[in-house]
Amino acid sequence: MKIVSYNVNGIKARLPRLLEYLTEAGADVVCLQELKSPDDGFPVEEIRAAGFEAVWHGQKSWNGVAILARGIQPIERQKGLAGEPEDDHSRYIEAEVNGVTIASIYLPNGNPRPGPKFDYKLRWLDRLAARARDLLAEERPVVLAGDYNVIPHDDDTFSVPAMAEDALMQPESRAGYRRLLAQGWTDALRTQYPRGGVWTFWDYQAGAWQRDAGFRIDHLLLSPAAADRFAGAGVDKEHRGRDKASDHAPTWVRLR
């Protein structure tokens, strides 16, 4: 079972690239982030024609998450996270696919910092951790897939000095990510590449793609029951280099 996290950076603009990926990559589940589309603008018919069914949580112009499954309808479990009833950002959706609970996550960026956006990022991390604890208590295979907007380690970026002031790499952001792992989650890509040096994002500016000046912010966290079925993880980097591609590459884990 190949489960993918893919920040598409606008599903309307990237639809040709997404459909290519669905056709070519052999994915069974694809978790999308940053749809930048309201619910009624989600291209469900085009995705269905590619062989996938979907659940989604859209928002006009910003955010938005979805879970696509090949040949089967994902069973939606939850949209959004508890803790801030006034939070209307579409950043979390959770579904069951073939006995595996899967969440698609788009964590806040947090820039500029300090300030309210960074504070919101840290609160959101805490709310995610609360949901993650509840999911672990179910003792089932669970995958938390998404754009976490956290660079966990120094070897997860092309340049520590270049990112030192960014919200993605602040001690508080990293501490929130470590608290998640400490609950008992396994970082799939880190397990595959323990020495780091694997990027999932390359900015559109300053020739970042051409210079391979990227960093790792797309993560797939596995519950113990899912980690027991771990069969590999990686980044489909080639798709980042295509014409009018997202600035993220699809990142995946394979479970037996």
UniProtKB/TrEMBL annotation:
The GO biological-process annotations, alphabetized, read as: DNA repair
For site (Interaction with DNA substrate), what residue positions does UniProt give? 248
Q: Where is this site: Transition state stabilizer?
A: 149
Q: Does the keyword Ligase apply?
A: no
Q: Where does Mg(2+) bind?
A: 7, 34, 147, 149, 247-248
Q: Which cofactor does it need?
A: Mg(2+); Mn(2+)
Disordered, as annotated region: 233-256
Q: How cofactor binds (record note)?
A: Probably binds two magnesium or manganese ions per subunit.
Q: Where is the composition biased (Basic and acidic residues)?
A: 235-247
- Acyltransferase found in the keyword field: no
InterPro entries in the cross-refs: AP_endonuc_1, AP_endonuclease_F1_BS, Endo/exonu/phosph_ase_sf, Endo/exonuclease/phosphatase, ExoIII-like
The positions flagged as active site in the entry are: 106, 147 (proton donor/acceptor), 248 (proton acceptor)
Top-rank taxon, per record: Bacteria
Marked site positions, Important for catalytic activity = 218
User: Which positions fall inside the Endonuclease/exonuclease/phosphatase domain?
Assistant: 4-248
Bilayer-crossing regions = none
Write out the GO MF terms.
DNA binding; double-stranded DNA 3'-5' DNA exonuclease activity; endonuclease activity; metal ion binding
What family does the Swiss-Prot or TrEMBL record give for this protein? Belongs to the DNA repair enzymes AP/ExoA family.
- NCBIfam families the record matches: exoDNase_III, xth
**Official protein name in the record:** Exodeoxyribonuclease-3
